[in-house]
Amino acid sequence: MPEVAVVVPTFSEAENIAKLHGLLIEALGSESWELIFVDDDSPDGTADIARKLSLQDGRVRCIQRIGRRGLSTAVLEGALSTAAPLVAVMDADLQHDESILPAMVNELRSHDLDVVIGSRYVAGGSTGDWEQGRKDISRIASRLAKGLVPADLHDPLSGFFVIKTAVIRDTARHLSGYGYKILLDLFASSGRPLRFAEVGFTFRRRTHGESKLDSLVAWEYLMLLVDKRIGHIIAPRLLFFVLVGGSGVALHYLVLTTLFLGFSVSFTVAEIAGTVLAMTSNFFLNNLTTYRDQRLVGWRLVRGLLSFYTVCGLGALANIGIAAYAFSRNLEWAISAAAGIVVGTLWNYLATARYTWGSRK
Ligand code: GDD
Ligand code: MN
Question: pTM here?
Answer without folding.
Answer: 0.86
